Amino acid sequence: xxxxxxxxxxxxxxxxxxxxxxxxxxxxxxxxxxxxxxxxxxxxxxxxxxxxxxxxxxxxxxxxxxxxxxxxxxxxxxxxxxxxxxxxxxxxxxxxxxxxxxxxxxxxxxxxxxxxxxxxxxxxxxxxxxxxxxxxxxxxxxxxxxxxxxxxxxxxxxxxxxxxxxxxxxxxxxxxxxxxxxxxxxxxxxxxxxxxxxxxxxxxxxxxxxxxxxxxxxxxxxxxxxxxxxxxxxxxxxxxxxxxxxxxxxxxxxxxxxxxxxxxxxxxxxxxxxxxxxxxxxxxxxxxxxxxxxxxxxxxxxxxxxxxxxxxxxxxxxxxxxxxxxxxxxxxxxxxxxxxxxxxxxxxxxxxxxxxxxxxxxxxxxxxxxxxxxxxxxxxxxxxxxxxxx
Length: 390
Ligand SMILES: [Zn+2]
Hints:
The protein is of the alpha+beta class and 390 residues long. The chain contains eleven helices and 18 strands. The chain has helices at residues 2-6, 9-20, 29-46, 89-92, 107-126, 151-158, 207-219, 259-273, 299-316, 331-336, 361-386, and strands spanning 50-54, 62-66, 75-80, 96-98, 101-103, 135-140, 163-166, 176-180, 182-191, 195-196, 229-237, 243-244, 247-256, 282-292, 322-325, 341-342, 349-350, 358-360. It is elongated and about 85 Å long. Bound molecules: zinc ion. Residues 80, 109-110, 143, 168 line the site of zinc ion. The site of zinc ion (ZN) has 5 residues, from helix 5.
């Protein structure tokens, strides 16, 4: 299989170039994400796989790729086709290779992963591995805006699987991702009493001053060691420099490592905002929905990691390390419903969502081989446990 993939390196880069040069910002359905979907669907159908299209009105269609009905895949691979870049970006700065790195919009997040998954499947088919039939691949269209339309699709396709492999890029140092922090969002509104700050300041009650107290208290919830972070990211308030402000508001981003922390943090935020520090002002808290649950590093994650580490060591002689990150991904959804999940299985690169986003070309082939070998090993493991030892 490795020999076969080694010969495919040029084809892999060629497909990557094609994909990068088609802009696929999340909101660009017809001319963008759906074009990526159509291209990938054609390739997978040519491999003999079935492609189910789940149409979306406002965003790109989602694709589910798998072997024909009689197979019941146990491995779920999750990819997304959308990028954060607007239409016209690829024309401005198309795919470019320089000093062993590839550049272009979405090159590492995650068009290189779309290519890696496809070629891993192609290689498994080439060597007639039964693991080829044990895989279901999701290609979703709206990950970059929080998977609003794909979340339920991801959950419903994950629940009967034994493993979920999420193809966000590996970290800059090559680490894969074994834990992600959960995320919730609150809005705080403060009402005061307006007054002229020169003529009768004693009649006013400053909403901005009250908000300032709350911001300090909210930021104090942060506990780096426990993986808890509270950030007031946006504030607004006031109407003119010589008016005591009668209104101010704040947007609050909360990150946490464990699901149980979410309740504790919520309690603290409610305590802080249940009263005003400045008499005569009023505080109102809204929101608190968890946008993405945390992906916790469990014993199940550990055993999946052990398999990946072993494959990395045995086949590729690379030491696979893993890490936690604060950013969310679709891995949070599959992990939250109890499916052993590992993320960051894409090629190595960095600076995602930025102009200087890049793929380390030297990692493209090894990470594709790693993925194919991991699929083989997981398939083997599932079938070992299915058959009782004689
Ligand atoms: Zn991504």
